[in-house]
Amino acid sequence: MIMRYGRLATLSLTHVSAATLAIALSFVLSVAHAQNAGEETVTPVMKQEIPRNAGDHVLLATVSYAPGQTSEAHLHNGPVFAYVLEGHIASQSGDGPLKTYGPGESWYEPEGTPHRVSRNASDTESAKLLVFAIVDGEKPIKKPLPAQ
């Protein structure tokens, strides 16, 4: 994936754990409250088990593709969760099939899985992903796929 961003904000696992607990508690309370007050509906998009000690930082970033733009084949140094915000993304991880994802669709890439194809499926419209990754703070989010 092509990542264009200035500074990255990273959080330690301690902060993430505390934040996760706070979010989970507020979610439980808001769902209980929402059932009584007729408020918003919360719909899970993805649930994926992750390996323990997968990394010590959380990265949340957007990845923007111009029409027809393609990323080089690569690997990720931690588990990656991708969610399509705009447009359509063609993606192939590991030996899986090439799939096209549209707005609201998501996928998971385990650490070290070859990401063979990642491209904007359209030659006329831009596309954008939201990426959530758990990474070692000392390593880049991605590295080129080794030559076969």
Keywords:
148 residues, alpha+beta, Jelly Rolls, 4-stranded antiparallel β-sheet, 1 helix, 9 strands, globular
Question: What would your notes on this structure say?
Answer:
This protein is 17% helix and 33% strand. It is of the alpha+beta class. It has a domain at 50-144: Jelly Rolls, CATH 2.60.120.
Element layout with pairings:
Blueprint (H helix, E strand, L loop, with lengths): L12 H25 L19 E9 L8 E3 L3 E7 L2 E5 L5 E3 L4 E4 L5 E6 L6 E9 L6 E3 L4
Antiparallel strand pairs: 1-8, 2-9, 3-6, 3-8, 4-5, 4-7
Quantity of strands, as a count: 9
The CATH class assignment of the domain at 50-144 is Mainly Beta
Q: Which ranges are low-confidence, i.e. pLDDT below 50, for 5 or more consecutive residues?
A: 1-34
Strand and helix order: HEEEEEEEEE
- Multimerization state: single chain
| CA gyration radius, whole angstroms | 17 Å
From the 3D structure, determine the CATH topology of the domain at 50-144.
Answer: Jelly Rolls
Specify the structural class: alpha+beta
Largest sheet: spatial strand order: 1-8-3-6
Largest sheet: 4 strands, antiparallel
